Amino acid sequence: MFYFGVDYYPEQWPAERWPEDARLMAEAGLNVVRLAEFAWSRMEPQEEVYDFDWLDRAISILASRGLHVVLGTPTASPPPWLMAQDPALFRVREDGQRVTFGNRRTYCPNNPLYHQATRRIVAALAEHYASHPAVIGWQIDNEFGERCYCPLCARAFQDWLQQRYGSLDALNQRWGTVFWSHTYSDWGEIPVPLATGSSPNPGLALDFFRFCSDSYVAYQQVQVNVLRDRCPTHWITHNLMGFGYDRINYFDLARDLDLVAWDNYPRGYWDMQADVDASRAALSCDAMRGLKDQNFWVMEQQAGPSGWETVSVAPRPGELRLWAYQAIAHGADGIVFFRWRTARFGTEQYWHGLLDHHGHPGRRYAEIKRMGAELEQIGERIHGSHVAPAVAMLLSYDSRFAFQVQANNPQFTYSAHFHHVYRALYERHVPVDVVAPTADLAAYRLVFAPALHVLSEEVAENLRRFVQAGGVLVVTPRTGVKDEDNAVVELPLPGLLAGLSGAEVEEYDSLPPGAYNELEFVLPELAMTPPARASVWCDVLKPSSATVVAHYTQDYNAGQPAITLNRSGQGQVVTIGTFSDADLYRALAPWLLDLAGAQPILTTQAEVEVTERWQGQRRLLFVLNHTDHAQEVALDRGTINLLDGSAPLTGTVTLAPRDTLVLETQ
Ligand SMILES: [Zn+2]
Predict the structure, then answer these.
(1) Which of 239, 437, 599, 625 could be a cystine partner for 394, CB 3.0 to 4.6 Å?
(2) Alpha-carbon span 126 to 141, nearest angstrom
(3) pLDDT in tens, 228-244
(4) How far apart are CA 328 and CA 479, in angstroms?
(5) Pick from 648, 620, 650, 623: which is nearest to 635 by CA?
């Protein structure tokens, strides 16, 4: 079945209200609730004194209305009695300050006392609900993240390094600690890269970021073990934070989970955007689907204005439904809105649910009720169908972490660069998989490796294999610069890919803000007016076997190659020498797609999003109008509109503002 529900906190409301909430949920077509993720102090009010009676009653009321339950383990927000036991339970920030009680996510993920308390509450909860008929699965903790720099973590980091390097000689050599006389003679001398230590050794810093990521993977595993042991029939997930979150290697975190879930907030209070860039949520969906190469859930789908101290722009009429369908269009098999009713108390007083504080259904509830009715009709036909792109982008957490140590240019961020490339494909209605650099690439025609900075021989070989077999590979600046120890390679750039690229980086120029060079394309089909711009970073390329696609036209680089194309085996490699901005990738996208023989799903305007899901030969086409005005879309073949069950559609259809079509073709 297609799961459609809400995050619900019965402990925050009088029990007399619960039946009314359950009734309204069922009337809106909801069939699942996530419960208990922040209720530790209600479930274990004193150490080893448990109270699940209230939760039993809440679940029984919800189940009587046909709602299934996902239980959250409550460890993201520990009770005061636990945190009062030892100051070492609190994590230490990068500036060396220990956090204090007051928010959530305050714990050190390596603290043994915290692990012990975690095992206890998760085991008690799991044993109590293992055979409850309404419970279908578990969400572990909530939004893992935040690096800890405490003394316990420092010691665990030293152990982690010992495992990785075996000997101090190896570590000293690979980190290059001879520089500035940092040669370590005892594991205990190795620090964590506190901000007070200023710019750290890049090898040490990258390893520390990997260690921090591994710490959460290991902490999650503590809970996975308890749950698998006691609840073998339930699935296990965690709610990740989409493409934007860059402190944990999500490929590693996803490995031990049965399914990936993530939290989708297109209108954040933190950025106060008047217009939502719909490609951001699309990228997050694709990145989350790529973690396990399987469909996912959205465990927190925006249900109203978000807010802590300040409040986001209110979702416009139609947006909640549109964003939820967008996630489905990219592979969601479950949508859970955060949250049911807006809290009257606490930090998230202004993080709005489907119902406002007063608890009466309004505009947002009505919108989701409409969608609930639609999914009751068509959910079965969507569930389990899959997205099948011919284009992939390689997401490298090692490279991402390395750029957090050294951005290379103050205007550069890996995330923004990745998004620029993605958006050019998104706007042309080209479906994209976001996968690990080690993923099997055989299914793809075109692969982008944006700023693949830390490059191992294993990944280089994977890319060679892909190109030899006929694929088109696109690389951008700062690729192949670092080895796995975050040392600069002793090779001409792009390092291990220089042979494949058929061009070397002769020299590079890091540009100041506002500065740019112009690009002149040798290929007539790429001629642009006004000319495409190079900015942020300019590699001067020196082709060996590659042909020149574009030159710089200004400054001391005038006439030098900026983009090249190399044939290798059955395939081709395009080397782009400048980061530039989204416009360059928009300009290059049609040419690159042609080179690879990859087709857009439909040719239509960029503001209308088009995706498809497949079940055998049956295609579900999702057409989403992200604008506040009607859009006309020319269909490529006859279809049935599943949402209104109307007669077949052909030719040009009109899409109302912020409306969605779900079309089926055989
Ligand atoms: Zn710690």
Answers:
(1) 437
(2) 14
(3) 999 999 999 999 999 99
(4) 33
(5) 650
How close is the Cα of 519 to the center of ligand 1, in Å? 49
Select from 297, 286, 169 the least CA-distant residue to 609. 286
- Amino acid at site 450: P
Distance 247 CA to ligand 1 centre (A): 15
CA angle 212, 217, 220 (to 5 degrees): 125
Q: Give distance in angstroms: CA of 628 to centre of ligand 1.
A: 47
> According to the model, what pLDDT value does residue 572 have?
98
Q: Which amino acid, residue 155?
A: R
Does the pLDDT of residue 55 top 70, yes or no? yes
Cβ atoms of 648 and 640 closer than 8 Å: yes
Which whole-number Å values give the CA distances from 643 to 130, 565, 620, in the listed order? 37, 45, 12
- Cα–Cα distance, 597 to 76 (Å, whole number): 47
The whole-number average pLDDT for the span 564-574 is 98
Contact 625, 607 (CB under 8 A): yes
Residue 496 is given by DSSP the state G
At 229, list the tokens: 């042991």
Candidates 263, 266, 288; CA nearest to 278 is 266
Categorize the per-residue pLDDT at 645 as very low, low, confident or very high, splitting at 50, 70 and 90.
confident
- 86-127 pLDDT, tens digit per residue, is 999 999 999 999 999 999 999 999 999 999 999 999 999 999
- Give the residue among 449, 439, 441 at the shortest CA–CA distance from 475: 449
> Contact at 8 Å (CB) between 264 and 327?
yes
Distance CA 221, CA 215 (A): 10
DSSP 586: H
Which phi and psi angles does 602 have, rounded to 5°?
-145, 155
Q: Distance (Å, rounded) from C-alpha 316 to C-alpha 327? A: 17
Q: What burial class does residue 26 get, using C-beta atoms within 10 Å of its C-beta: 0-12 exposed, 13-18 middle, 19+ buried?
A: middle
How many Å lie between the centroid of ligand 1 and the Cα of residue 153? 4
> 392-431 burial, b for 16+ CB within 10 Å, e for fewer?
bbbbbbbbbbbbebbebbebbbbeebbbbbbbbbbbbbbb
Q: What is the 3-state secondary structure (H, E, C) of 537-549?
A: EEEEEEECCCEEE
Tokens of 318: 């139609």
Q: What's the gap in Å between 215 CA and the centre of ligand 1? A: 9
- What amino acid occupies position 563? I
> Beta 472-475 vs 516-521: how paired, if at all?
unpaired
Note whether 115 and 219 are within 8 A (CB): yes
Q: Which amino acid is at 309?
A: E
CA of 154 to the centre of ligand 1 (A): 7
Q: Output the CA 83–ligand 1 centroid distance in Å.
A: 14
Ligand 1 geometric centre to CA of 217 (Å): 14
Cα distance from N-terminal residue to C-terminal residue, the chain: 22
From residue 479, alpha-carbon distances to 146, 215, 448, 453, 589 in Å are 27, 28, 11, 4, 20
Give the span between the Cα atoms of 455 and 451, in whole angstroms. 10
Helix (H, G, I), strand (E, B) or coil at 398: helix
Q: Mean pLDDT lowest for which of 73-77, 270-274, 476-480, 644-648?
A: 644-648
The residues assigned a catalytic role are: 143, 300
Is the per-residue pLDDT at 403 higher than 90?
A: yes
- Which pair of structure tokens corresponds to residue 214? 């591994």
Banded model confidence at residue 666, pLDDT cuts 50, 70, 90:
low
Which amino acid type is present at position 485?
A: D
Mean pLDDT of all residues belonging to the chain: 97
For residue 88, the 8-state DSSP code is: G
Average pLDDT on 40-63 reads 98
